Amino acid sequence: MIALLLRDLKLSVRAGGGALIGVLFFTTVVAVIPFGVGPDLNLLSRIGPAIVWIGALLSALLGLDRMFQTDREDGSLDLILMQEHPLALTVLVKCLAHWLGNGLPLVIASPLLGLFMNMDEVAIGATMLTLLVGTPALTFIGAVGAAVAVALPRGGLLVSILVLPLAIPVLIFGVSASYAAVQDPAPFMPPFLILVAITMFFAVLGPLGAALALRNAGD
Amino acid sequence: MKHNESPQMRLTVEALSARRGEDLIFKDVSFTLSAGESLILTGRNGSGKSTLLRAVAGLLRPESGRVTWESDGAEPGTRASEACHYLGHRNAMKAELSVRENLEFWQNFVGDFAGGRGMTVTGAADAVGLSGITHLPFGYLSAGQQRRMAFAKLLVAWRPVWILDEPTAALDVSAESVFTALIKDHLGHDGIVLAATHQPLGLENAQELKMTGFAGVMESMW
């Protein structure tokens, strides 16, 4: 299992892995907002957490379709399905590797992008924390979509559309927790804890659903 | 080949049928393979050889019938696919990783099945005649070298059953003889081989199953 984690991490940083693509896309999306919105610093800092979260969500969707497809194309998926390891556990490990390769870089890049949006330190910290907690949920939800669309030659867009409705709650609670940290009357903990709960819920349900879909995707 | 103390192991396929779309590709295929036995599937393209192999490997849900595995070391309820190595048309190796990284990954991930031990990565590369190039990315190798390295994957982790789908595609004559020797060696170590092939592999005592496609099979003995 450790071997699978290390292999997927190596693949995500080597040529064509796509770990950097996500961060570049994230940077591009957030960096063009100030140009579009104009130099109204108050407005920028007010919409900042939402923009950073939306950028992260879109970037996270970008790399999802490759999660199982590359393994299917070269035949590795057949061998993975045949082993005695529980398939849900294998999928969980693949999700972790995918998040470390694609999700964590987004979290690390988010403070810089917070500066682009004229956010103060508390808002940047809160956005980074909510992204750290919330992006794994996007990966787990995305694993189900990626597993369903694994046999389709151009499943990328389909995966995004399948996954987006389920990812909306993550966005809502992530953004509201980030705002709660800077706007006084709103409490931070309730939306943050719901975000944690969503991530833990999908950490169980996502791999199970994806394993079921992969078992039935056999051609 | 006669084995006096060969371990008790048996791959049993009972009344297996599989469907592709509307048509039954084959129907009620049954056979039993014990330690040291091999079965060669022959037949035209599209006659269902690959489908049968995928069904035995557990990668395709059969329409009816079942595949079971019994052996001394295995817990009851072991799925047959866990005792099998499957070498399909695709090599299951990553072009971005070096050959050594690929083989080490499969060695660790697949692990040895009860009752045997795999070779080291260097030993396996040596056995397929390509010991000097394990540091190269897999994508740099030629098609024949890639096939040889995919075969080396079978050697790094022990599995009693080898399921081989056209193992000698894209290979030159010397590689074919290397593969034949490795397959014979596996049978000599009480392994079981189930292969679909056009080239004769030169195995003694191999059973042959001639697939005719669309629900027809004929069985014969060499």
Relevant terms:
heterodimer; A: 219 residues; mainly alpha; 0% strand; B: 222 residues; alpha/beta; Rossmann fold; six-stranded mixed sheet; three-stranded antiparallel sheet; 5 helices; 26% helix; 29% strand; globular; disordered C terminus
Characterize the structure shown.
The complex is a heterodimer of chains A (about 220) and B (about 220). Chain A has about 220 residues and is mostly helical. Chain A has one domain (about 1-215). Chain A contains nine helices and no strands. Chain B has about 220 residues and is an alpha/beta fold. Chain B has five helices and nine strands. The two termini of chain B are about 15 Å apart. The interface of A and B includes residues 7, 75, 79, 82 and 216 of A.
Quick overview of this protein structure:
Chain A has one domain (2-216). Chain A is built from 9 helices and no strands.
Total strand count of chain A, please? 0
CATH class of chain B: Alpha Beta
**SSE string of chain B, helices as H and strands as E:** EEEHEEHHHEHEEE
Mean pLDDT value of chain A:
91
Number of helices of chain B: 5
**Oligomer description:** heterodimer
Q: Stretches of chain A where pLDDT falls below 50 for ≥5 residues?
A: none
The whole-number mean of residue pLDDT values of chain B reads 84
The CATH topology annotation of chain B reads as: Rossmann fold
Rg over alpha carbons of chain A: 18 Å
Secondary-structure class of chain A: mainly alpha
Give start-end ranges of low-pLDDT stretches of chain B. Answer: 218-222
Level-2 CATH architecture of chain B: 3-Layer(aba) Sandwich
Main sheet properties of chain B: 6 strands, mixed
Q: Which bin fits the share of residues in helices of chain B? A: 25-40%
From the N-terminal CA to the C-terminal CA of chain A, the straight-line distance is: 26 Å
Transmembrane segments (chain A): 12-37, 43-64, 85-108, 128-150, 157-180, 192-214
GO biological process, one term (chain A): cytochrome c biosynthetic process
Membrane topology (chain A): Multi-pass membrane protein
InterPro entries (chain A): Cyt_c_biogenesis_CcmB (IPR003544), Cyt_c_CcmB_bac (IPR026031)
